[in-house]
Structure formats: C-alpha cells, structure tokens
Design brief:
Blueprint: H1 2-10, H2 12-28, H3 41-59, H4 64-81, H5 91-113
Helix pairs in contact: 1-3, 2-3, 2-4, 3-4, 3-5, 4-5
Amino acid sequence: MTVLLTFIRTNWVYITLVILAVITILSLWPLDLLPPAPGSDKAHHVIAYAILMFPTALRKPKFWLLIGLFFLCWGGSIELLQPYVNRYGEWSDMIANAIGLICGLLAAELVRRTRLVY
C-alpha cells in the first residue's frame, strides 16, 4: 500500500491531469441517453471529484487550496457547458463536486496522519 501511495505522491501532477481529462471527456461527451449505472448521479460526482482531489491533497503542494478551487471552477464550467452537448447541467451536481473535493481532501489527510505515506 505504501508503494502505491508513494507513487501517487511522486506522480500527482500526471495522475491529476489524467483524472481531470477523463472527468471532462465523460462529462461533455454527447449522449442521446445516459447509460444505466449503479448508484446515483450525485454519488458518481462525489466519487469522481474525491478521486480528483486525492493526489493533490496527498502531495499537498504549496498552492493546493488554489488547485482545489480550480477543480471546483472546472466542474462548474462543465455544468455550464453540458446543455450544449445534449446533457443536463445541474447546480446540485456542483454541490456534489464540492463534497467530493472535501472527501478527497479528508481521505488524503487521514492517510497522511496515519503515516501510511511520509
């Protein structure tokens, strides 16, 4: 487990960029009908944005809080663009994104405090 966490801390920028790209593509890909997926849409937002925030929060670079704010603004921008690609933009998704960012931060802090990564 510590090897994986060390890998995430070391490569957090690349991992974060890939996650951000995947979230963006999946959120803006035009669909005629949303595919069925287990769980709720809001839970998917929380999970995606928690995963997005985790590498940054684990590494905790100098401007990590601004990076988190950027993620929140990016998610808001996606919500504003979704109606133009046959998707639904919802403010409640934005709230779920913010909750996800907080969960990712708390998960990384828990890992840091339990000394699973140094």
